[in-house]
C-alpha cells in the first residue's frame, strides 16, 4: 500500500506563547516540524507528505523540507485553514492520486517514536478502516455543567487518551470529511470517521507521542532529546 502523511502544522501555538508559529518553534536547536518530519520519514512507511502551513509562513515551512527529506519522499505544502479540520481538509485535497492509506499526524507531537507510525499503518493494512493510538487515562475525569458543578464521573478504565498518527483507508477519511457538519467541530480525525458509522480501532499509544502544547511540554521534550542523545 502507498502511504501518505498529512501534517497539520498551521496552528499558532497560542498556549505555548511562542513568537513564531509552533511548527517553527525550535526545541533542542531543531524546529517542531523538522522533528515531526524526522519521525514520520524515519518510520520508512511514507511515500508522500502534505504539510498544512500557517498562512504567510509557507516559504519558511517549505525550507524545513530541504533538510529533512530523502529523495524518495515527495512533499507538498498547502496553506492551512482556520481550524485544524480545515487544515486537514486542504491537505487531503493535495494528496497524490496513488495514495491508499492516509496518516494524519500533528506537527506538535514532534517526538513520536517512528515505530508508532509503523504500528498504525500495519493495523490499517491489516483491515481496519480507522486506527488511533491511545493510552489509559491517568487522572480521574469529571463531567461538569456550565457552573462547574460535577454532573458525572465516568469510569476511567474504559477511557483512552488518543494521540496521532491516526491512520485511515483513504476513502474512509475522505467520506468522513465530506460528511462533516461545518458547525460540529472535531478535535481529531477519527471522531469525524466515527460519526459516519465506521469502526475506529485503538492500538497502544506511546508516552513520547505527547503533544507539545504548554511551556512545560517543551521542558519535557528537551529532557527527552537529551536522553536520546546520551
Ligand atoms: N493545527 C492546524 N491548523 C489549525 C490549528 C491547528 O494545522 N488551524 C495543527 C497545529 O499546528 C498542531 C495540531 O493541529 O500541529 C494540534 O493543534 P494544537 O496543539 O492546538 O496547536 P496550535 O493550534 O498551534 O496551539 P494553540 O491551540 O495553543 O494555539
Ligand atoms: Mg489549537
Automatic annotation (TrEMBL):
Entry's EC annotation: 2.7.7.60
Chain's role: Catalyzes the formation of 4-diphosphocytidyl-2-C-methyl-D-erythritol from CTP and 2-C-methyl-D-erythritol 4-phosphate (MEP).
The protein's name in its UniProt record: 2-C-methyl-D-erythritol 4-phosphate cytidylyltransferase
SUPFAM superfamilies: Nucleotide-diphospho-sugar transferases
Species annotation: Phytoactinopolyspora halophila
Top-tier EC class: transferase
CDD domains found in the cross-reference section: CDP-ME_synthetase
Keyword Magnesium carried by entry: no
Protein keywords: Isoprene biosynthesis, Nucleotidyltransferase, Transferase
Gene behind this protein: ispD
